[in-house]
Write a structure and sequence with these properties.
single chain, alpha/beta, Urease, subunit C, domain 1, TIM Barrel, 2 domains, 13 helices, about 35% helix
């Protein structure tokens, strides 16, 4: 007797007609034709069952604050930073918690059950850290939330940041962050990387740095990040987020850089939605789109996971909490349109990001946590194309969110009575 049995599911790896049996919050069996009873049975009807979506790069302290204290008129990164600097002194713990938990409601509805959020520690009050540490406890039953101590105004550039970052880590923030390209000089940026990696090594923590979020091809802090990762023995525990300068770098230099990143087992976290909006602002035409070299990083064996970054905040007036929107934008911007490409992009919002976050028990294998999403799509490529309804969102074997199928009724002579977007999947393998 199982607690939950999902019948006739298609898995992201292409297996179909699969039954998934759940007991005590974990996957107890996964096979075709499981002959058993369960307290609850869900017929997937051949649709895609995925592990939950994972966002490895977000700013939950700023989310849903669009228009406070005013709108970002230019739409630029720098005006967004200036706006956040105006808003930050007025932040209250209560308002931060309310906005963050409300965003988590939206995340659950999209099947997003793990988030890594950067927490600005430039304000020595650390109201952001206090609030999000409480949020982490509130949402723990349904979202795995990791927190990064992020010195938004620069580790050295902001006089209070060094002490505040250390205090935030003492309070229980999980990960060491940084923003070397925002320091006053390239030398200060490199020095900040070394100092922050040393802190992580001494404390046994992971590192996730905003790195080279600029169009300047000479912003090469990711090289330093890779080298310091190796020097401190942090391989596999360090992520470079954004990395947008790489799209403008000289190809010969990149031919040296990517192998160094691979040697360091550096993780890469592009943020396709936000960077296609913010980058290339000094260009006329041709206008750069600001993405790092996603296909090349994947080909070199780096783990690449996509982040949402922002939703309705000073930097980005869009966003829905849907990681499939992120994969959809990445597909177009990178021209990764083959079936294998689509599967790789789907992995970038699921299993790759879970690996970057070091999530225990993640996946669709016996023994894994019974965390799953039933999508109104038939394979990963179709999921990216359609960004379909999440019919069931399951956490530890219990349905925590449901959305009705998208079906349109037609009244056309001689035509079908209804249209289901999932029925338009190509007959050949995607």
């Amino acid at each position: 007797m199982f607690d939950l049995l999902i019948r006739n599911a298609t898995l992201p790896d292409g297996r179909s007609g699969i039954d998934i049996a759940v007991r005590d919050g974990r996957i107890a069996a996964l096979d075709t034709g499981i002959a058993a009873e369960a307290a609850e049975v869900i017929d997937a009807q051949g649709l895609l069952v995925s592990p939950p979506f994972v966002d490895p790069h977000f700013h939950m302290d700023a989310t849903l604050s669009l228009g406070l204290p005013r709108m970002n008129v230019s739409g630029t990164l720098l005006e967004g930073i200036a706006l956040w600097g105006e808003l930050r002194p007025t932040l209250t713990r209560e308002a931060l918690i309310e906005r963050a938990v409300r965003y988590c409601d939206l995340a659950v509805s999209k099947g997003l059950l793990a988030i890594r959020s950067h927490v600005d520690v430039s304000d020595p009050r650390l109201v952001t850290a206090e609030a999000l540490l409480e949020v982490r406890e509130i949402v723990a039953p349904y979202i795995d939330l990791q927190l990064v101590a992020f010195p938004q105004d620069g580790y050295y550039r902001c006089p209070e940041a060094e002490a505040a970052l250390s205090r935030a880590l003492d309070m229980g923030v999980d990960i060491v962050g940084g923003i070397p390209h925002f320091e006053r000089t390239m030398a200060d940026g490199a020095a900040s990387i070394a100092a922050l990696c040393r802190i992580a090594a001494d404390r046994g923590l992971r590192v996730d740095m905003h790195c080279d979020e600029t169009d300047d091809p000479l912003s090469r802090h990711v090289e330093t990040l890779a080298a310091e990762t190796i020097r401190f023995g942090l391989q596999g525990r360090v992520a470079g987020s954004h990395l947008t300068s790489m799209h403008s770098m000289d190809n010969y230099y990149v031919s040296k850089l990517i192998p160094l990143m691979a040697e360091a087992q550096l993780h890469a976290i592009p943020n396709p939605l936000i960077n296609i909006m913010l980058q290339g602002r000094h260009d006329t035409y041709p206008k750069r789109r600001g993405h790092t070299r996603i296909p090349e990083l994947m080909a070199a064996g780096l783990t690449v996971g996509f982040g949402q970054d922002c939703v309705l905040d000073p930097w980005y007036s869009m966003g829905s909490g849907d990681l499939l929107d992120v994969a959809h934008m990445a597909l177009h911007a990178t021209q990764m349109g083959s079936g294998a490409d689509k599967r790789a992009l789907f992995d970038a919002v699921t299993v790759n990001s879970a690996k970057i976050m070091g999530l225990e028990g993640y996946g669709l294998e016996v023994g894994c946590h019974a965390d799953m999403v039933l999508l109104q799509a038939r394979d990963p490529g179709e999921a990216i194309r359609l960004r379909p309804n999440r019919l069931k969102v399951i956490r530890r074997g219990k349905v925590i969110a449901e959305t009705a199928p998208e079906v349109t009724r037609l009244t056309l002579s001689g035509r079908p009575e209804q249209v289901d977007p999932a029925d338009y999947a190509p007959r050949h393998a995607s």
